[in-house]
Write a structure and sequence with these properties.
The chain is an all-alpha fold. It is built from five helices and no strands. It has one domain.
Length: 98
């Protein structure tokens, strides 16, 4: 069984204040991600155009090719969640271990 975050991170040498900040950050990411996913699903039922890539591209106009290209990269929520949470955790580790 894995140790809880506070115990695992504090016994690895992180200061308790840093562990507390890290837990807050991960929690905020998870909650925010879930809220956004719920909003997208609800909007798909009530307002399908709200997250339409085509409509966003038309609204943005020219000069933002990279932003438009990035909109097409969104994959399924689970894959995106795991990838982005990994980035958050890697960033925390690099910051606190470095």
């Amino acid at each position: 069984m894995k140790k809880p975050w506070f115990e695992r991170w504090s016994t690895s040498g992180w200061k308790l204040a840093d562990v507390d900040d890290a837990v807050d950050l991960v929690t905020a990411f998870v909650v925010g991600f879930v809220i956004e996913e719920q909003e997208r699903r609800q909007a798909a039922e009530t307002d399908p155009d709200r997250y339409s890539i085509v409509q966003r591209e038309a609204w943005r106009g020219g000069g933002v090719a990279l932003v438009k290209d990035a909109a097409h990269l969104h994959d399924e929520g689970d894959q995106r969640f795991e990838r982005q949470l990994g980035i958050v955790l890697d960033g925390l580790a690099a910051h606190l271990d470095g």
